[in-house]
# Entry
Amino acid sequence: MLTIKKGTVEDISFLIEAILEAERSGTQLVSYTKIFCISEERLTDMLNEILLEEIDGFEFCPSNFLVAFEEELPVATVSAWVESVSGPSSGIIKSNMFFYFLSKASLPQIEENIRTIEPINIQRAPGALQLESIYTIPLYRGRGISALLIDNHIQRHKQDNPELRKVQIQLMGENIRAVSAYLKAGFRVSERKSSEDPRIVEFLPGLERILMEKEI
Amino acid sequence: MNDIISELNPIFRKIFNNDSIEINDTTTAGDIDGWDSLTHLDLISTIESHFNIKFRLKDLAKMNTVGSMIIIIQEKIAS
# Structure
């Protein structure tokens, strides 16, 4: 039987697995390693330290995750937060966190990498519930656990903030299966940004970014 | 606080390429055009170099406004 709990620092290794797998988006590419010019091992260490800080306002905060457990085994997770609710955007918070670990010498290259992917960057809407790091371990896929976690997030956030009107998710347009699953779950595509710049696929698993959203 | 603001203001003007910027302790990223994750990297890096300080992860997590940034810079300079 499944139980759903808020993430804690005890779940960090599973949360990191989820973040990396969601980043791969079915490919072998972990965007952060390419953008920040670091190894996956280094990224794992950085995520571990960032998650231990429990900083709200962006996806890498343990208590922003809901985790589904089968007995004691974590099988799926989804991170959710309300964008810019009491401070800077999640992008700036994430920048702050990664900046701490990066060498100053690597910054010009990192800035160039970020500029390369900028044409398909989509802004998150302040005040909207954001979903990220959606992941289910392979054996448990196809059982609707992610949808259950998303509904649970929506209910919890609506309870805390009845004014909440919108939930958003960003994904690569090439991830057709995921796009189709979210369409079935009532999301609609509200924005698309694409580019023909082949350098983008050095950093992201595709050339099109999609924003999907649903009224709640 | 005013001393630090007067040192920070030219940094903000240069990073955001806008000579009309006048920051104060309540200024946030939403108040300045172009303050995004990319310019933020530049801003933090330039501030560290200018004041010869190194922010900790906890410091960076608390930077919600220019005011909180100034308090952290003051603490760093004093220590």
